[in-house]
Amino acid sequence: MAIQQPPDGPIWRKRTTPQSLALWFGWLLLVLLFILAWEAMTRNQIWAFVWDAPEQAADLFGRMVPPRWSYMDQLWVPLWDTINIATLGTLLAIVLAVPVAFLAARNTTPSPLLVRPIAIFIIVASRSVNALIWALLLVAILGPGLLAGIIAIALRSIGFIGKLLYEAIEEIDTRQVEAIRATGAGPAQVLDFGIVPQIMPAFAGITLFRWDINIRESTVLGLVGAGGIGLQLKSSVDSLAWPQVTLIFIAILATVILSEWVSARVRAALI
Amino acid sequence: MSGPAVLPDPAGEGATPGAVRYPSHWRRPPLISDGRLRWAIYAGVLVYLVVGIGAVEVNWGRLSEGWERGLRFLGGFVEPDFISRWDDIRAGLIESLTMTLTATVVGVVISIPVGIGAARNIAPSPVYLACRALIALSRSLQEIIVAILFVAMVGFGPLAGFLTLAFATIGFLAKLLAEDIEDIDAAQVEAIRATGAGWWQVLDYGIRSQVTPRLIGLSLYRLDINFRESAVIGIVGAGGVGATLNTALDRYEYDSAAAILILIIAIVLVTEYVSGWVRARVQ
Predict the structure, then answer these.
(1) What is the nearest CA distance from A144 to chain B, expressed in angstroms?
(2) Mind telling me which residue stretches traverse the membrane in this protein (chain A) (predicted)?
(3) Residue contact B101–A33, C-beta within 8 A
(4) What residues 217-276 of chain B have any CB closer than 8 A to a CB of chain A?
(5) H helix or E strand, kind and range, residue A2
(6) Chain A closest CA to B152's CA: distance in Å?
(7) Is residue A65, in this structure, part of any structural domain at all?
(8) CATH of the domain at A130
C-alpha cells in the first residue's frame, strides 16, 4: 500500500512538455551549429602550426624580452600624435553628433517622420562600422596621415555620442521645459535654458567615456596608415623587431591607463 | 562665489549709497565656479587646439585628389559590385560568421567559471585574485594587438581570429557576470544554504537562477560585438571579411569594397535587431 497518495491534479513541473522539448531542441540546434561552424572554420587549417604553438609562444616571448628601451626616443612624437587623433577626433565628433542627437530625439526633432529616421540612420551607420574600417576607407581616399585618423575617430564616435545623447534628451524632465516655455521663451531659449542644463552632466560623462575609448582605438589606427603609434607597431611587426613591439605595447598600455586615470579625475571633478 | 555686493548693478539708478545692491538680472551660474580656474582651463584648451591642429599636416594637393576618389567611392555605394569578387567575399563572410559563433560559444563556456571565480561573495581570495587578473589582462589588451600575437603563434587564418575573439569574450563576459553575481539577492542564497545545501547546490539553486537571464542577454550582446570585431581583425591576418575588404581597397576596387561594407552593415543590423529582440524577451 502506498504511503503517499498522488495529488488529484497534475504534478507541478517547471516547464510543460512542449516547452522542455523546445528548449532541448534549441540546445541541440546550438550544438549542431557550433560543430558545423567549427568544421567550416578549420577546414583549411594546417594543424602542425597549431601543435607547435606553445613552442612558438615560448620562442616569441624569448624574443620579445627584454624590450628595447632605447627605441622610446622615437615613440614620443607618435604617442603625441595618437593623443591628438583621439582628442581632436572626439572634438570633431561632438560638433557633428550634437545636432544629430537633437534631430534624433523624439521630443526635439523638427519632424518625427522625415528628419528623425535620417538622424537615426546616421547614428546606426556610424556605429556599425569600426574605427579601423573607417580609417581603411579614409586612408584610401585621403591618403595616409593624421587627418584620416582624426576623421575616422570622429565618424565612429558620432554614432556613440549621438545615441547616448539622444537617449538622454528623451529622458529629460518635461516640467522644466514646460516652465521655461510658460515664461514666453522662444524655441532657442527653451533649448538653452530648459533642455541643455539637464543634459549637460550626461553629455560630459559620454564625451569623457568616448575620449577614453578613442585613445585605445587611436593606438591601432596606424596599422592601416592613419597615423599615431600604430605606424611604428606595424613597421616593427613587419620587420619582426619583437623587442620594439614589446616596448610599443608597454607604451600603449601606459597611455591607456593614464587616459583612464585622467578621465576618472575629470569626471569626478565635473559630475 | 559672487555675492550680491560684488556684482555691479547695470541699471545703476535707484541704488542708494551705502545700501547693499542686488543684481537686477539673473545670470546662470557657470559650470566651473572658480573664475581663475575657469579662464585657465579656457586658455589651456585654446593653446592645445592651436598646437594640436598645427601638428596635423594637411596635404591639400592629395586632398583634392581624394575628393575625386571619394566621389568614386560614393559611386561604388550606388552601384555596389557583389559579383566579380563574390567568391572572396563569400569565403570572408563565412570565416567571419563561423569565427564569431565558435568564439562566442567557447568564450561564454570559459567565462562562466572565471566569472564565478571573480565574484567576491562566493570565491576564496586566491581564486578571486587570479580570475580578476585574467579579466584585467583580457580587457586591457585590444583585440587587434591580441590578434597580432595569436597570428604570430598559430599562423594566418581564422583560428587566430577565433582565439582572439574567445579571449576578448572572457574579459567582457566574466567581468559582467562577476558583477552580476556580486549584486544578487543574498537572502535567496541564505535560504538555499539553510536547507543544508552544499556549495554546488547553492550555486545551482541560489545563484544560477538569478543570473541566467542576464547571462543569456550578455552572451547575445557579445555575439554582436564579436561579429563587428571579426570584420576588423582580418586586417592583421586573423581571417574574416576584413582581409577581403583590405584587399579590395588596396586594389582600388571601390565597388567591391562598397559591396562588402553594405554586407557588414546589413549583418550587424540584423544581429543587433535579433539579439535585442531575444534579450527583451529573456530579461
Answers:
(1) 10
(2) 21-41, 83-105, 241-262
(3) yes
(4) 228-229, 231-232, 235-236, 242, 245-246, 249, 252, 254, 257, 261, 264-265, 268-269, 272
(5) none
(6) 8
(7) no
(8) 1.10.3720.10
Q: B98 and A130 in contact by Cβ < 8 A? A: no
Which of A80, A145, A224 faces B57 most closely, judged by CB atoms? A145
Please report residues of B whose CB lies closer than 8 A to that of A87.
Answer: 48, 52
Q: Is residue A20 part of a domain?
A: no
Mean pLDDT of chain A: 87
State the DSSP string of A24-41.
HHHHHHHHHHHHHHHHHH
Least reliable range by pLDDT among A139-143, A209-213, B16-20, B270-274: B16-20
Q: Identify the pLDDT of residue B5.
A: 47
> B229–A130: do the CB atoms touch at under 8 Å?
yes
Range of the domain at B151: 84-280
Instruction: Decide if B171 contacts B145 (C-beta within 8 A).
Output: no
What was the ipTM of the complex prediction?
Answer: 0.78
Q: Choose from A77, A94, A136 for mutation: most chain B CBs within 10 A.
A: A136
Residue B160 has pLDDT above 80, yes or no: yes
Q: Which three cell numbers stand for residue A9?
A: 491534479
Residue B31 lies in a domain: no
- What is the pTM for the complete model shown? 0.80
Weakest mean pLDDT among A197-201, A207-211, B14-18: B14-18
CATH classification of the domain holding B247 = 1.10.3720.10
Alpha-carbon gap, residue B226 to B163, rounded angstroms: 12
Q: How many domains does chain B have?
A: 1
pLDDT tens sequence across A240-266: 888 888 899 889 888 888 888 888 888
Task: Choose between A2 and A224: higher pLDDT.
Answer: A224
- Domain total in chain A: 1
Cβ distance of B268 and A60 shorter than 8 Å? no
In a domain, A245, yes or no: yes
Cα(B104)–Cα(A38) distance, integer angstroms: 12
Question: B13 lies in a domain?
Answer: no
Neighbouring C-alpha atoms within 13 Å toward the C-beta of A98: 14
Full DSSP string of B77-128: HHS---STTHHHHHHHHHHHHHHHHHHHHHHHHHHHHHHHHT-TTTS-HHHH
Look at residue A12 and tell me if it is in a domain: no
Domain around A167: 74-270
